[in-house]
Design brief:
Elements lengths: L54 H26 L7 H16 L5 H29 L3 H6 L2 H11 L2 H23 L1
Helix pairs in contact: 1-2, 1-3, 2-3, 2-6, 3-5, 3-6
């Protein structure tokens, strides 16, 4: 064993650097601000930004979809000479999509979706009956829809049954709920 030389100093252990002084509150040092930095994106966190709502455009597009589907439904009724009541679900989807997407699916647009669905279904059936009347009697479609609308409505009432009422009720529910659903997505 060797003895240490009394003239040499013993080695000192390494010293850690001094820590920065803690901030003193109220002395001009800014306090840390939590949540002001840009957060890291997290999977599944947060909701997407809401889409811009343009209610007049949504109403115009929903009305246009209602007219287009009414014409399409009328041509289908005339082509097969039969009423397809379950097509009200397709009319509801076509009407609710622009109402929900453009209008944001607000609570005021949901009854409009239901109303446009039923109106599109009714106008489609009237247009189909006018096309059938034109084929059978030669009365022009515009004349049948304007001057002879009482005859068309009377024919529609005689063909109206429980099944038609059920599908109209389904159309109201589907038009209402799809407007809400499309507004969320």
């Amino acid at each position: 064993m060797t003895t240490p030389d009394p003239g040499t100093a013993a080695p000192t252990p390494p010293v850690a650097p001094a820590a920065a002084p803690a901030p003193q509150w109220g002395t001009g040092t800014p306090a840390p601000q939590w949540g002001t930095g840009t957060p890291a994106p997290q999977w599944g966190a947060g909701a997407p930004a809401p889409a811009a709502r343009n209610v007049p455009l949504a109403l115009a597009a929903g009305f246009g979809a209602m007219l287009a589907t009414a014409l399409l439904y009328g041509f289908v009724v005339k082509a097969i000479d039969f009423e397809i009541s379950w097509m009200v679900i397709g009319i509801a989807a076509a009407v609710a999509y622009p109402l929900g997407k453009l209008g944001g699916g607000g609570p005021a647009l949901r009854p409009v979706g239901a109303l446009f669905t039923v109106l599109g279904f009714f106008l489609g059936e009237m247009f189909g009956l006018a096309l059938i009347l034109r084929e059978q009697t030669g009365v022009p479609v515009v004349s049948a829809l304007t001057e002879h609308s009482d005859l068309l409505f009377a024919a529609w009432k005689t063909a109206f049954d429980v099944k038609s009422a059920l599908f109209i009720a389904i159309g109201v529910c589907v038009g209402f709920s799809l407007t809400k659903t499309f507004g969320r997505s």
